[in-house]
Predict the 3D structure of the following.
Amino acid sequence: MTGTIKVIRKAAWAVAWDESTSQHVYMRDADIAFSTSGILYVGPAYQDHADEEIAGAGIMVMPGLVNIHCHSGDEPIAKGLFEDVGTAVLWGNALYEYSALIDADADAKAACQTVMLSDLMRSGVTTHLDIASPSPKWLSLAAESGLRAYLAPGFREAQWRMAGSHRLDFDWNKAQGRERYAEALAFVDQARAHPSGRIDGVIAPSQIETCSEELIQEAVAEARRRGMRITIHAAQTMAEHEELLRRTGETAPAFLERLGVLGPDLILGHCIFLDHHSWTRQRNRDDLVRLAGSGTSVAHCPVTFARSGMTLESLGAYRRAGVNVGLGTDSYPFNMLEEMREALICSRISGRSVFDLDTGGLFAVATTGGARALGRDDIGRLAAGAKADLALVDLSHPAMQPIHDPLRNLIHCAAERAVRDVYVDGQAVLKNRRVVNLDYEGAVRELQDAQKRASRRAERDDPQGRPLSVLAPYSLPLARQG
């Protein structure tokens, strides 16, 4: 069944897919016909039946963006707390000592997920991979949003524990880790069976250093038996890099290669601190060769790490080495277009050249790079036969003016402010800048109280008993009153 056929007439610009050259290309004054069955036509003067017409003057049509690494569980309530702190002996990273203290309670999980999903679609995302702990509404909200979802319930056998602010330790509980693994398998089966056809599960050992070799190998084997994607945080911090060297003498890619885990169905979260990185001690380039040769994908999330002064070295270099890289937002602000801008800037800074990465290459990372990581050739591109996942950009927005190259304007200037409509499977999930299926405004209102509750728990759970004023001091001192 084709269903209702919508046609965008004479789109001023379209980011179309050229199959002959395997790349995105600009098309002017294009007609795009689509329905729930997919994209039917991209080109000049569509002549067949149309049930609904959308004026394309002043519009750029582009494929929906593919986000392959985000966390809905508690990130929206961490906003404004720890951007200026970090643990000095852990290379300034805030993950272990600070970020781990914040967690959303059961009442806040749905609000956090709703905000994340809404912000993603407001920035043109149509597919996302969400790594979180299962909560009662996780699956139903993902389905209700209308987005294409890959849900990855994380599991691990060890918890991080900070000894003061000077040492990272690990508390192992393998029995509990196995319980979480069994729960994850049950959940991904449920996700895969969802009747929407837009949801799948992902096998997700949470971090490379918090899972035993045996669990990683078993989980990956099970994922491959089921034909599912696998994701794991690896090479994401220098603390993890040094811990793996202490345990095994190996970098993360070398460790996973020895376990037989690397492959085109594996997505490594972040993958920053490889043997060539200037912060590490190896000074080789073997890890990039390992990743490229195995077809392993990298989920690059520049914003959250740039906040701590860290970045991939460099996105352009990974691509030139043949590594498939997709983009993720990881945490707030869940804005894929801002993430793209940061990715471009960080790549040029770490590559020490404006030529390290260009806008067209970056757009490929955020679309077909993510699609390839998920094993898909029917998303991330605007072509007949692909899924009808697309975004309409308002070229009349002041931040899009004047127009010479609309993608540059969108990524470098306008970001989500110019995204007008978003469709997934031919159905609008964002219409005239408003989220269609979720109560975005209501969820945002819930975040303030949720953050206050989480902050009280952080004070209670902090091993050093520090108040919030010490854990998350204000950017400016409070003025004296009277």
